[in-house]
Specification:
0% strand
Length: 143
């Protein structure tokens, strides 16, 4: 996402430079004209669904297209920033939940270990009592 945002920022900057360059009376080179026609075609295709070269394509001035393209790119960048911010908030929340879950699991493991120690002590006591009872049965009770 960061790479895409960087690329879009560069594209917005270049569009602003072209806008200011053309606003000062600079003429378009042949290459710039082709790029602008391509940009117009992409704009028309994405917004109106019309094919490039279709006679139904409305005519736009270069100024209005540049303004709308800059505005569109800025809104896309704003949406991407919001998405990144939301994703970062979700990531932070999930990291906090994970940390809390790890702490809770660690406490449960310690409690389980203490329980097992108690069970082991009971088993040992039962074995000793069993041996004592067997000895009393065989030899009789002697205080």
């Amino acid at each position: 996402l960061r790479e895409e945002i960087r690329r879009l920022n560069v594209e917005v900057s270049s569009l602003k430079e072209r806008y200011h360059h053309h606003g000062e009376g600079g003429d378009l080179t042949e290459e710039e004209e082709e790029e602008e026609l391509s940009l117009i075609g992409r704009y028309v295709n994405s917004n109106n669904g019309n094919a490039v070269g279709n006679n139904a394509v409305p005519r736009y001035s270069a100024q209005s297209l540049e303004d709308s393209d800059v505005a569109s790119l800025q809104s896309i960048i704003a949406m991407m920033r919001q998405t990144i911010d939301q994703s970062n908030r979700e990531k932070d929340l999930l990291e906090q939940r994970l940390s809390a879950e790890q702490d809770r699991s660690q406490m449960e493991l310690h409690a389980f270990a203490r329980t097992l120690e108690g069970v082991d002590d009971l088993r040992k006591s039962a074995e000793v009592m069993g041996r004592e009872i067997r000895r009393i049965k065989v030899r009789g009770y002697r205080p």
